[in-house]
Amino acid sequence: MSNSFLGVIVLVGLVLTILLLIFIFSSLAKSKEVLKAIDGTRFSRKIDLNEYEFLYERFKCMYEDNISSNQNNKNDKLGLNKSFVRQIKADGFLTLNSLITNKEQFKKLAELFDVSEMSNT
């Protein structure tokens, strides 16, 4: 083999290596795009962000600090009892009886987590 042929092979190999590295780094930069929700939570996929924000708006009335008649109306709109919401937020379900007696409330809560109606709102 001649030196010029060997030089061409090395040059082509070097160019291909550089192009491969550029491709790898550019695709890594694209995949690390971070989307932020309204509360600062980060997501890498737009669908996850949309579902989170949909649920955030739905449930935020349960966690607002100001207890007002407006908040009580929103909790009533969610269809959850005030005592059930209080147990979720603070007390928990310390006994099996308290867990089982709230079966219907848990069903309503599970329905509220359904994001299939997200496109309808």
Q: How many β-strands, per DSSP?
A: 2
Strand order of the largest sheet: 1-2
**What's the average pLDDT?**
84
Any idea what the radius of gyration is?
27 Å
Beta strand %:
under 5%
Largest sheet: 2 strands, antiparallel
Low-confidence stretches: none
Structural class: mainly alpha
Number of helices, where a helix is a run of at least 4 consecutive DSSP H or I residues: 6
Detail the topology: elements first, then pairings:
Layout: H1 3-31, E1 35-36, E2 42-43, H2 46-63, H3 69-78, H4 82-91, H5 96-101, H6 103-112
Antiparallel strand pairs: 1-2
Helix pairs in contact: 2-3
Brief write-up:
With 121 residues, the chain is mainly alpha-helical.
Q: What features would you describe in this structure?
A:
The structure is a single chain. The longest helix is centred in the first third of the chain and has 29 residues, at 3-31. Helices cover 69% and strands 3% of the residues. Helix 2 (46-63) packs across helix 3 (69-78). The protein has a two-stranded antiparallel ribbon. It is rod-shaped, with a radius of gyration of 27 Å. The protein is mainly α and 121 residues long. The mean pLDDT is 84. It folds into 2 domains: 1-32; 33-120, no CATH class. It is built from 6 helices and 2 strands; from the N terminus they run H-E-E-H-H-H-H-H.
